[in-house]
Structures are given as structure tokens and as C-alpha cells.
Design goal:
Radius of gyration: 21 Å
CATH class of the largest domain: Alpha Beta
Strand order of the largest sheet: 6-5-4-9-8-7
CATH topology of the largest domain: Beta-Lactamase
Number of strands: 9
Largest sheet: 6 strands, antiparallel
Number of domains: 2
């Protein structure tokens, strides 16, 4: 009788990558490439190449001292179960209770801090049709999105600057064009708790956003999407409803 168990291919580079990730995960502080190579008995060139590949994908983060720690993309993967079963469920459960927001699409998003991108996690569809792809996993530049700007407003500005080599090119003629303009918008969010995408992602669409505090800090945000004419009529009541929804989500996450 022959053994039908399929053989698992040995991929040395992948195994070394997992060794490095395990080592960094258990380290209490960021570590250097030389330390990783020495402690794991790996060639420095091999270690360097793997670290560069993982950093370029956002799986690892390299600070200004060339020390490595886990990147936000890996943390995003690790937290998928909690997000899917916890925050997303809470978001949908609470959103249905806001009649003011019923006609509109509300999105829940997170921020990829390494790439400076808003990542959509889920959407609660409204009856008002907005022709924009709010599918889970879709990414847009955080500097132009309402949820992105809401989260960035609670992030030290020097860290915001470090996310981008150059300021992203605007997607529409409404887009903020430089870091000075972005800082002015973020300062306003700090005082009102509301962020605004006034056609910066798509002309004719206005999004009002706010951030959500959790035990891990501010990594989540919500936004509601309206036509420009709807926003002109409903901006005050919609804005207040969004803040109240965010506060209720925070309470459900143990922050209130």
C-alpha cells in the first residue's frame, strides 16, 4: 500500500522569512538586520534581501534608525478575525438604528500606516445610489478620503509626513494639493471631530467622516457618502449622527 500523503515542498526563502517574522514578533524592541542575521545564523545578504522584500510590502516597518518591527499590513492580517467578527458586526448592528443615515451608504475603514492608504473593511448600503466601489479591501489615498483624514487627524503629523515620499497626486481638481493644505484640514478635524471629502475621491460625491477610538488607539474610521445636493441640505444632522454612531461603536469596544 502506497502512502498517498502529498509531499510538502520545502521553500528555504519562505522558511527563513517566517523565522525572521517569529524573531521580530518576540523581540520587545525593534531590531537591526545585523542582530537578526547573528541570532538566526543567517547570511547577512540573505537577511537583507528578505527584510527589504517584507518591508516593501508593508509586512515589516523600518524606522529612521534602520531597526525593524512588525508593519501595519501584518497586523491587519493578524486582526482580521477580530475585525470581521467584532468591529464589523458592531458597526452593522448599530448603523441600522440611525434613521437619519438610512438613505446613505456608510463605510467602515482602517488605515495602512505604512502606505498612507485607507482600506475599506465593510459598507452599510443605503437607498441613495452612489456610483463608487466601496468593496472590502479597496484602497484609496488617505489624504483624500474622509475616513483617512479622520484617522490622520489623531496621528502625529511627523508620522503622517513619513508615510509619503512626495504628496500624492490629486484624483480630482477638488483634491488637497500639499502637506500644508492637508494639515489645515486635519487641524479642523481635531476641533470638530468631522472630516470632509468634498469631491476629492469622486466629483459629485461628498463624504463626511469621523474616527473611532479603541484599545489600540485610533486605527478605524467611518464615513457617510452623499451627493453634493444632499450634503448641502443634511450636513448638520448627518454630521451629528456620525459622531453619535462613532461614540456608540467606541462604547461597544469598551471605550465609553
Amino acid at each position: 500500500m502506497t502512502d498517498q500523503t502529498p509531499k510538502i515542498a520545502n521553500v528555504p526563502a519562505l522558511e527563513k522569512a517566517f523565522e525572521i517574522l517569529d524573531f521580530i514578533t518576540t523581540s520587545p524592541t525593534p531590531v537591526s538586520s545585523a542582530t537578526i542575521a547573528r541570532e538566526l545564523s543567517l547570511a547577512r545578504s540573505t537577511t537583507h534581501n528578505i527584510l527589504q522584500a517584507l518591508t516593501s510590502k508593508g509586512v515589516l516597518h523600518k524606522d529612521n534608525n534602520h531597526l525593524f518591527s512588525l508593519g501595519s499590513y501584518l497586523l491587519y492580517w493578524a486582526g482580521r478575525f477580530e475585525v470581521e467578527r467584532g468591529v464589523v458586526a458592531l458597526f452593522h448592528e448599530l448603523a441600522v438604528g440611525f434613521e437619519t443615515l438610512t438613505p446613505y451608504t456608510i463605510t467602515l475603514s482602517t488605515l495602512d500606516f505604512d502606505r498612507g492608504e485607507t482600506v475599506f473593511l465593510s459598507s452599510h448600503q443605503g437607498s441613495s445610489a452612489i456610483d463608487f466601489a466601496f468593496r472590502r479591501g479597496v484602497r484609496v489615498p488617505a489624504v483624500f478620503s474622509a475616513t483617512g483624514k479622520a484617522i490622520l487627524s489623531q496621528t502625529p503629523f511627523d508620522r503622517v509626513l513619513a508615510m509619503y515620499e512626495t504628496f500624492p497626486a490629486p484624483l480630482t481638481d477638488k483634491g488637497v494639493v500639499d502637506f500644508d493644505g492637508l494639515k489645515a484640514e486635519l487641524d479642523k478635524v481635531k476641533s470638530t471631530r468631522l472630516s470632509l471629502d468634498d469631491g476629492q475621491l469622486r466629483l459629485g460625491m461628498t463624504c463626511v467622516g469621523t474616527y473611532i477610538r479603541s484599545q489600540d488607539g485610533v486605527r478605524l474610521g467611518i464615513a457617510v457618502s452623499l451627493s453634493d445636493s444632499e450634503y448641502a441640505k443634511q450636513k448638520d444632522v448627518v454630521g451629528q449622527a456620525m459622531i453619535e454612531l462613532a461614540l456608540q461603536i467606541e462604547k461597544g469596544l469598551g471605550m465609553g
